[in-house]
Amino acid sequence: MSYDVVKIAIADDHPLFRTALIQAASKTLANSKILEAESFAQLQTLLQEHDDLELIFLDINMPGNDGFSGLSRIKNGFPDIQVIMVSAIEDGKVISRAIDLGASGYIPKSSSLEQISRAIATVLNGETWIPEGIAVDDVNGPEKQLAEKLESLTPAQFNVLQMICDGLLNKQIAYEMNIQETTVKNHVSAILQKLNVNNRTQAGLIYQQLKSVEQQTESLV
Asked: For residue 220, what are the contacts with CB-CB under 8 A and spacing of at least 6?
């Protein structure tokens, strides 16, 4: 299998697993350029500095990333980048949730280098990688619709949604984003409409649920 140069970011706070991912990527993509991040903040810096990133390995729980919040943020701001979630969790419900929320694949940390290499090749060929031997729920579940709604938010609206979840008032959000309070109110109105919820509390709960790997379907859509 031959590709042009592929730029990859590996975001994981465990050095040993980063090394394993680097080895697998180098084996599969001889011309790959690999960047590393130990936190989600570092990954965000890489995203701003490298507009040609094509593939990201994202640890499901690392500093600055809780559950699927980082995945949703990446898909919101950089929808063309493929994201493979990595985790020690090998639960079919969690894996299917990752796929529904926009991941192109899911790699358990128990995977062999050969399995990781196959996952990379599969995703870069435009297919979805689901671990072998793990029973997953049917994808395209209720959170697929939620993912589409989250991707419809502008990056600014996504930032406002996160701050709503953190309990900030409009005045505080305006200060943090260096914008007018009326602009924040407009963002909030757009968020409620796009997420099809009635108030900011419900909107905040949606973002809060992204931080958990457990599926909570009661108020997702």
From this structure: 142, 143, 146, 206, 209
